[in-house]
C-alpha cells in the first residue's frame, strides 16, 4: 500500500473522481426507477472499461511517479 497525501477537500486530485466523471458521461441523461437499475448500469459501464482505459483516466503523473519511485507499476 502506498499512501499519497492530498490536501483536504480536493476531489479534483482524487483519481476516482475522474473515473466517475467518465462513467457519468453515458449515464447523465438516463432515468432509473430503482437504485438497483442504477447499480446495474454503473456495473455495465465499469465492465466495458479496459485496464488501459482506467489507467489512462486515473493515471496522473504525480501518482505514476510515486509508484515508479516506490518500485510498483
Overall mean pLDDT? 82
Return Rg in Å.
15 Å
Instruction: Give the structural class.
Output: mainly alpha
Residue runs with pLDDT of under 50 for 5 or more positions: none
Order of helices and strands: HHHH
Largest sheet: none
Give an overview of the whole structure.
- With 73 residues, this protein is mainly α.
- It has a domain at 32-73.
- The chain is built from four helices and no strands.
- It is elongated.
- The two termini are 12 Å apart.
List the helices and strands and how they pair.
Blueprint: H1 15-27, H2 35-48, H3 51-58, H4 61-70
A few lines on this structure:
This protein is mostly helical and 73 residues long. Helices cover 62% and strands 0% of the residues.
Tags for this entry?
4 helices, 73 residues, elongated, mainly alpha, single chain
Amino acid at each position: 500500500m502506498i499512501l499519497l497525501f492530498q490536501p483536504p477537500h480536493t476531489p479534483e486530485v482524487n483519481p476516482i473522481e475522474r473515473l466517475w466523471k467518465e462513467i457519468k458521461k453515458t449515464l447523465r441523461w438516463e432515468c432509473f426507477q430503482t437504485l438497483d437499475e442504477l447499480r446495474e448500469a454503473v456495473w455495465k459501464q465499469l465492465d466495458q472499461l479496459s485496464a488501459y482505459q482506467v489507467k489512462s483516466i486515473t493515471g496522473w503523473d504525480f501518482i505514476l511517479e510515486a509508484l515508479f519511485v516506490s518500485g510498483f507499476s
